[in-house]
Sequence to fold (616 residues):
Amino acid sequence: MLPPVFGVLFDGIAYGMLLFVLSVGLSVTLGLMNFVNLAHCAFAMVGGYTTVTLMNQFGWPFFATLPMAFIVSALASVVFERTLYRRLYRATDLDQVLLTIGLAFISVAVFAWFYGTTQQPINVPSYMRGSFAFLGINIAVYRLFLIGIGIVVTLALVFGLEYTRFGAQVRAAVDNQRMARGLGIDVDKTFALTFALGSGLAGLGGALAIEIVGLDPVFAFTYLVYVLIIVSVGGLGSIVGSFLAAILIGVSDIAGKYYVPELGAFLIYLVMLVILMWRPAGLFGRR
Amino acid sequence: MTLSDTALTPQAYIRSQSRWRPIEIVFWLSLLLPYVLFPNYLSLASQIAITAMFALSLDLILGYAGVVSLGHAAFFGIGAYTAGIFSKFVWGELFTGLLVATALAALVGYVTSFIIARFRHLTLIMITLGLGLLLHEAANSASWLTGGSDGLQGVQVWPLLGVFKFDLYGKTAYGYSLAMLFLVFLFARRIIHSPFGLALRGIRENWTRMPAIGAASRAHIRKIYTISAAMAGLAGALIAQTTETVSLETLSFERSADVLVMLVLGGAGRLYGGLIGAAVFMIARDQFSGIAPQFWYFWIGILLVVVVMALPNGILGGLSALIARWRRK
Fold:
């Protein structure tokens, strides 16, 4: 029999995996182009609403909607990347912040217009809803599934970056963009693809998040803070960093809510500030 | 820079920059017009004056020194809560309340400025955001002192100078806020048109080269950040005194984001940018108050995209570009 602290740890890790899937794309694109994209969670929200629409309007099964959430978010992000973002790659932080915060505001209003401001319900398959006892702690099947997804995504990204040609180009561009251009790598194209992949993953995260945290139009801002914390704590462009930071923030958040609920989100903000002051470039950042 | 500019001595350059232009005097005199033209909108005018002061404080760090802050409402909220709590538990005298609130905001600003001056780029944005959120959570938890999400109730202030009571129409409130805004503006104007102000603009343009010509970037950032925090605290104290209530919203991320939008809309890095931006933003919000808040933000979003893409220096930047083009003809 394990003490209850392991139950909190399990929930925290599952939550952390969800946050990881939401944030890893932003980490890589920030590391690649230094583009501060505050609309990242708006793309996650696109994925979430894709799943809701397909399930509730068209009766698709939950699992079939997940790839669609990925694809729709990725396509939406490419449209914005090609039309708006690319003009600001060399602009100041402030301009990037303003443009993307503006897009996030617009996304909140647009989804509120079409779907209302209430939480969107979905029905995940009944076998995903249950839970079982393991060594005395309560394991929810859906959370176990989240941990599985998190691990699969991490492995896919790490191996993809390490062993594919495209991964090598991304790594080269993150390390030294000018040198990579000099070697004939089309950094802009690499960035556009990475951006689409990252936003697609965010969309997948948004779809997966509905069952845990719900979905309403302010999702673009409520989870933006978490995502930014993970990216800055983990270090830009570092997948392992984001993975560990997501677990750290997920566990701190769940443990904080469980043991000291009166503190609210105080704890994770404190964790972020302390880590950033100790290591300004994040735990695994190189710059 | 044209040749005639470079021919000036530094002293003469600063003096020519700081001369009062006729349009400025007209601008400040016209701010008295609401008493005659819009007597029903004086409390809105008072809110605008206070928000303009807040935007001006952000302009000093963001527009002039290039420090992007997503948590400037922290100081506004500190000032508001300090003034509110002071008048509730100590006494309702206005100027001591302002003084205490400004001093506390300046102190917190000074302490945090040591952190701010060390970081740039995303880390800086995250740290300002984090400090703001941390304070918001702290004020929410400490409901025994702040009233939590219900806001601070029971704030009572004495009449201004012992004579002018704060009425429902905001006659006193507007005069009081406007006078304070003018004083703060004079102070900001003096700073900007000083060698220190020039050094700040240098730091904004190139953070690493300024120390090479003898301007200590970090020390300058610390100074201006403290000044800006004090100013934001003063604005917060005014809102607490004129509305006699303090809500948790004074510390919120929305307030930080709104003031950023106002400043950018008006034109960052211009003394009047924050003032014009605050007026346009608040009047528009008042006119469109019928629509639900989320749709109000839709237009704010569109506005931000348009400003970044088409009007990079805000309304004032666009106007001065137009005037420059017209003069060249």
